[in-house]
Amino acid sequence: MANSFGSLYVGASGIQNSQHGLNVVANNLSNMDTTGYVRQRTFFSDQIYLKNGQSAISNQQTGLGLKIGDVVHKRDEFLDRAYRQENGRKAYYDTAYEATEEVETFLNEGTGSAFSSSIESLYDALNQFATDPAAEEKQNLVVQKTQLFLSRATSVYQGLSDYQDNVNQKIKDDIDQINSIGKKIRKLNVEIQATEAGGVETAMAKRDDRDKLVDDLSKLAKISTKETPDGVLKVNIEGVEFVSEDRVNPISLYTDNTTGFVTPYWQQLSKTVNGVSERKEVFDTYLSDTAKNQDIGEVKSLLLMRGDHRATYRDFFRTDADGNYTYDTDGNIQEITTFQYNDTIESTKDGLKKPGLGKSVIMNAQAELDRMIHTVAENINDLLSPTSTISEITARTNDSSTTTEFNKKLKNLVDAGATVTVNGKTISLNSDEGKSLVIMDQDYAVVGADGKLPPNELFSRVAGEKNPDATQYQRYTKATITDSNGNSLDVYVYNDEDGTDLASQYTLSQLTVNNNLIEQPNKIPYKHLSGTINSDSSNLHQNDDIAYDVAKKIYECFDVENFTLNPSDTTATNFNGFYAKYVGDMAEKGNVYKTTSEVLNDTVESVSSSRDGVIGVNADEELENMIKYQNAYNASSRFVNTITQMIDVLLNSLT
Fold first, then answer.
1. Residue 527 is inside which H or E element, if any?
2. What Rg do the C-alpha atoms of the chain give, in angstroms?
3. Nearest-CA neighbor of 622 among 30, 39, 25, 37?
4. Predicted TM-score (pTM) above 0.85
5. Distance from C-alpha of 180 to C-alpha of 220, rounded to nearest angstrom
6. Which of 34, 266, 393, 569 could staple 564 via S-S, CB 3.0–4.6 A?
């Protein structure tokens, strides 16, 4: 009789366990399309055993059926780690491709297309000017087309800067999202810990929510995770603890006062040394080696695409700690190397490593455009208003065919130990500094209708136009060379660009068309002064000869194929071919990112498919389990009925 009643426990456990199994199956099927849901799986364990006696070799026991051992998530840690890593890498290249595509589209449409046509218009205007430099209608056409050219170039540059600002805002939003996710994970850690503290219940829904947050976080940054025995998930970002057992270390943002660009950094790892803040940046953007998993996360890619400043032509050249150009042994300005452009460059100010200019899509586009405009401005200005050093001018007196009243007088003053005062500093012309002093070269001077010196440049610096008293921002500062005998000569000292002063640079944000020429186009230099040297040094000009030679050189400088986009560009082009090559270079970079992104998309889908095979709900498999549990339920019910009938028969037989 006892065994019969014990059998009822066995049957009842079968009914209960089958019902629990059906409940789990029903939960899986109802959440089949729920994002982040992880399939649950039922495990059974033995109920208690009743001891009936003891034999020589073992206890004699009677089992009372099964019970629910646990209902667990079906996860694969290896697949989770692989998915999150590749998901972050895909986001990195998706972001890079999106930025490249955005810039390329901008350059091909609207403002970019208008700028391309303005290059052709300016070229045509200079061509007409070369045929008759003295014609006022052609002088006026050059000024008008230069204004259009500069205006549209500025619009392109401003468009790139605006997109930089958009990317900067996206970085802010992503950092806010990262910090929000960190707080949510921390909250779920506490709730999971509280739920599972008794060792009875598993907080499966909360674990699903937490795992989904970790998946979302993996897209934004490179992460690693580790779960403690008591259910707390610890999260690291770029190797630094983000979510710990008892706190969240939020990512802070430093905002640059000049550009407004933000830089993510770890507040808890930063310090102040001698009053100077040393911030521990979250992302080392100069590191992007795939083999070392350094190309992971949307935020890192956004930082790289945006760059850290508004780029100009000067970014292609080496500078010292003060921002001044460095020169090679031949006196030429040193360009950055191909490695420094494509990979890593070390700051001369603080020694910190930064990503090469070529890695930043937006900064590279800005710098290449600005380089083209700067070169055009310099070439045209130097032909209309030429400059040379003191030593170059005085050397012409060694040849009678190039000797003029100007260089002969200058040579006599130099030989007499003359001095000149520039910006409050007195310089001896016999010194190295004096010999290398750059002045307007009157030997090749070309003037406008007013015949005045110094000749007008076509492209001027905005600060000099707005404030005529700010002579350091105008092309020349007038100075007088004097010797001890009282002999003197007025010269115009060239105001060179200052690496530390943006306003002094011939860069797009600081360029304008010379206001003198806008008001009176006939002031554009078009005729030689009497007694000046022909541009080919063959003879001296007489009677205000029309400067056909200079006008022709200005026109021809657009056709000379000596312009390269960047240090990696080995095929020179002319200014007319610049824009097509400029856009083509951007498209080529975009194709590289696109191809990488597509390959990674296949990888992520493959890993995701394998992971879904583990954590996802398979309707066919769940229906099989449903049928299994239904049959088990029915079998347990019949078992209970059979035992009940047996007991009834036994009890009736006793009465």
1. strand 527-528
2. 40
3. 25
4. no
5. 12
6. 569
Residues 61 and 91 in one domain: no
Pairwise CA distance, residues 591 & 100, whole Å? 9
In the prediction, which pLDDT does 94 show? 95
Joined tokens for residue 325: 């150009």
- The DSSP secondary structure of 150-192, one letter per residue, reads HHHHHHHHHHHHHHHHHHHHHHHHHHHHHHHHHHHHHHHHHHH
Q: Is residue 566 part of a domain?
A: no
**Angle, CA 83 vertex, CA 79 and CA 84 arms, to 5°:** 120
Rounded-to-integer distance, Cα 532 and Cα 546, Å? 12
Name residue 77's amino acid: E
Instruction: Say yes or no: 216 and 320 in one domain.
Output: yes
The residue with tokens 């426990």 is 9
CA dihedral 372, 376, 377, 380 (to 10 degrees): 170
Q: What is the per-residue pLDDT for 627?
A: 84
* Rounded mean pLDDT for each run of 10 residues along the chain, 655 residues in total: 65 77 77 73 70 68 66 75 93 94 82 83 94 95 95 92 96 97 95 81 83 94 93 94 94 94 93 78 90 94 94 90 79 86 79 86 94 93 94 91 89 92 89 92 91 93 82 90 91 90 91 95 90 65 79 90 87 85 87 91 86 70 79 82 82 77
Alpha-carbon distance of 540 to 134, in angstroms, equals 20
- Structure confidence at residue 488 (pLDDT): 92
Q: Which residue has the tokens 């091909």?
A: 108
157 exposed, middle or buried (CB, 10 Å; 0-12, 13-18, 19+)?
buried
Domain count, the chain: 3
Eight-state DSSP code of residue 229:
T
> Among 21, 33, 37, 20, which residue's Cα sits nearest to residue 205?
37
